[in-house]
Amino acid sequence: MKKIVYRVSIIFILALFITSCGRDKQKTEAIAMVNDAPVLLKEFQKEISIQSKKNPAFKITSKTLQEQLDIMIDKKLMLQEAMKMGLAENERFVDTIKTFWEQTLIRELIDAKMKEWGDRIFVTDEDVQKTYQRMQYAPIVKLLKVENKEKAEAARQRMLKGEKIEGEETIGPLSSEDIKIDILNNAFDMAQGEAKIFEYENGYLVLYLIKKEKTSVPLLKDIYNQIKQSVLEQKKEKALEQWLKDIKKSAQIQVNTQILKKAANEQ
User: Fold this and answer.
1) What confidence tens digit (pLDDT) does each residue in 254-266 have?
2) How confident is the model over 60-69, as a mean pLDDT?
3) CA spacing 20 to 30 A to 254: which of 29, 120, 182, 261?
């Protein structure tokens, strides 16, 4: 067993050596740098190609390209953190390094972080009660994203007057279990006809509650454990997202916008 681990380790070290030898060339083709680690243009184009084949409805736009790049940057950051924690030295990891090393390493990292956060991630009875109350309503909202707070306030005032604004979306009825944007959870606590502003992705979201539709849900005692588990998973996901945002802030990330545009034109 030790011989097998040793051989796989040697293969991995050689791979790192070969990569380091070509690092200067890689940098010239890098679409982004994450703490001196390149995100290569050819890797980026490959991921876009995979997404296009997997999802026929996938559209290549500046937004989807940026989203895919963000995913690859997050992946680099998580791998770097896993290496810092010494997870790559685990024998269990080394056994699978040849084919699944990135996936395994990230999974190990997430497991390690969840254990670290275990004492502070829990669900209270109040959490369950609040979620149950939200499940009894399905809000319908207007949503508008703007660049700055002044435009957000102007849009909010227009919404309160009942004016229709270019770019606004009507969303709903919303289910508390299916919400993807956390800000939308605020709709469950808003009054009909109320409009609020929230910071979101280098801009602001204006949220206007049109109405709340009453929904039918089982008795709380029948779905208590199900709600508790669902809330726990949501809390774990939020903790992971916040941790990733924090390490991203301290990381040195450089995006080559010219190559990003080139990638869009070549698709």
Assistant:
1) 888 888 888 777 6
2) 88
3) 182
